[in-house]
Write a structure and sequence with these properties.
Order of helices and strands: HHEEEEHEEEEEHHEEH
Low-confidence stretches: 1-10, 12-16, 61-70, 213-225
Helix content: 25-40%
Number of helices: 6
Oligomer: single chain
Length: 277
């Protein structure tokens, strides 16, 4: 019995000691200032005080997503009959107008004429707008075509990547690019392209001269490949691509180049009229 009394007394002392320590700890916590409550209250009061200021700074009109894009060049639909005839037996097959996303490498807008002569096909396209010079060769290179023998003709080729020329009386004297294309499934093709600016300048750019090596071209593949220069303005691009199994002979290339120049003169004259040049 004495032993039981001693054990019970010891347990009672231990129990009272724990309660005392717990109560003392709780009193200490309660006596500390509750800074986190005050912080929330201060933040709420500051937010309420700043609401009128933020309201006054709100714009009158909520910006639209399209506000970040440059304004498009206004071009009317030229239609099928504008290039209804092709030379040397080429027949017009189809006219199509295409709308793509803004800043698409092939142009936001395109007006395209498809021609055919036997097993030879030709596509003439007017693509716009571009916020600077744009190399059409890149569009084909990055869609699986092998691009070779790129050259600038129609003006003195100084070896620079960019050639820009002021308005000329003869389109034959304006810079243009010619390149050979090949594709394992599509066959052989020839590409011609030139560009016209809002102010009437003509120009071309060869990014292969700027990017140099294949690794350099790969590193710039997903960049916006345009050259804006010191006075950025919007440009229209004219392309002509002719596809024929086995490629083209020199006389055929001369005929295609003459066709391209005639189309360039007709289309760029019409574009200049619509742009008010």
């Amino acid at each position: 019995f004495s032993l039981s009394m001693i054990l019970s007394f010891d347990q009672w002392i231990a129990f009272m000691s724990i309660r005392r320590r717990t109560r003392a700890k709780q009193e200490t916590l309660d006596s500390q200032p509750r800074w986190h409550h005050k912080s929330f209250m201060m933040a709420g009061m500051m937010t309420l005080a700043l609401l009128p200021v933020q309201w006054m700074k709100m714009p009158d009109k909520v910006p639209q997503l399209t506000d970040g894009f440059s304004a498009d060049l206004e071009m009317s639909e030229l239609g099928r009959d504008f290039l209804a005839e092709g030379p040397n037996g080429f027949k017009l097959v189809e006219f199509e107008r295409v709308l793509r996303v803004p800043d698409d490498p092939f142009g936001h807008h395109s007006q395209m004429w498809r021609f055919s002569r036997g097993n030879t096909e030709a596509l003439i396209s007017l693509n716009y707008p571009y916020r600077g010079l744009h190399d059409a060769c890149l569009c084909y290179r990055y869609t699986g075509w092998n691009v070779q023998d790129e050259l600038i003709f129609g003006s003195v080729d100084t070896g620079d990547e960019v050639v820009v020329q002021q308005p000329s009386d003869s389109w034959v004297d304006t810079p243009a690019v010619r390149a050979n294309l090949s594709h394992p499934l599509e066959g052989e093709a020839i590409l011609f392209y030139s560009m016209l600016s809002q102010s009437g300048k003509t120009g071309v750019i060869l990014d292969s001269r700027k990017l140099g090596t294949a690794s350099g071209q790969l590193s710039g593949r997903f960049q916006n490949q345009t050259f804006q220069g010191s006075d950025p303005e919007q440009w229209i691009q004219l392309q002509m691509v002719a596809l024929q199994p086995g490629g083209f002979s020199e006389p055929e290339l001369e005929q295609l180049e003459t066709w391209f120049r005639n189309v360039q003169g007709k289309l760029f004259k019409k574009c200049s009229e619509e742009l008010g040049q």
